[in-house]
Amino acid sequence: MGAPLLCYHAGRMDDFLVRLPEIVIQLLAFAFALSLHESAHGWTAERLGDPTARWLGRITLNPIKHIDLFGSIVFPLMLAVLGAPIFGWAKPVPFVPRNLRNQRWGPALVGAAGPLSNLAAVVVLTVFLLVLKATVPDFRSMLYAAVREGATGAPGIAAPLLSLLFWLTAVNLVLAVFNLIPIPPLDGSHILEAVLPARISFHFARLSQYGMLILFALMWTGIFGHILRPFLGLLSWILLS
């Protein structure tokens, strides 16, 4: 992830301790974004006829209900120790497609709900940050310091608050764009399956067994970083121009 505000260096343990407040803020933003995303899946499935997520208590912003041990805790902490941006995944919200009133478009709508909820959060948070930008003196310099130098980049409470607002926005944006990529098991694959002709959709669905391998390969090669960079760069430009 190479947007201007997102610069990291491989961290030693002392760097990790210095960055600990920033890491906690990123984890909080990450937990909220994941909970919003997964709750939106469950809420939409319920509205379309399947109450499975409600029965399992997954329509909630409580992150404990959505935590995946490796994807939500181990993997993000590994990235934090390495000095990389925090990222990961939650337990998918289950739904029963045959319960949906619309068998073709229902799964696509459930899939789209997660990224759309994150995009809605991005819009609300960006508008709020723009209001602060228009009313708070030295907003740009404070935000730049808060993100580049961490939650202690400026005196007082301004730095941690601006850092939290920025990371809430950035993480929701990353989750939305990432999940709209049409590779199983990401949400974009469900949308693409609904659009494709039935025969092609059937063959495309068979890719799901290789989906995680493809995703890790794209992450390892840095291709995802190239996909996300323009969006994060636009966010940085909007807030700092």
Task: Describe the structure concisely.
It is built from 11 helices and no strands. It has 241 residues and is an all-alpha fold. The chain has one domain.
Give unreliable regions as ranges: 1-11
Shape: globular
Number of helices: 11
Strand content bin:
under 5%
Total discrete domains: 1
How much is the average pLDDT? Answer: 85
Structural class: mainly alpha
**What characterizes the major β-sheet?**
none
Characteristic key phrases:
11 helices; about 240 residues; mainly alpha
What do you see in this structure?
- There is one protein chain.
- The protein has 241 residues and is mostly helical.
- It has one domain.
- The chain has helices at 13-18, 20-47, 52-55, 69-82, 106-135, 139-148, 158-179, 187-195, 198-205, 211-220, 223-240.
- The radius of gyration is 19 Å and the shape is globular.
- It starts with 12 loop residues before the first helix and ends with a helix.
Set down the secondary structure blueprint:
Layout: H1 13-18, H2 20-47, H3 52-55, H4 69-82, H5 106-135, H6 139-148, H7 158-179, H8 187-195, H9 198-205, H10 211-220, H11 223-240
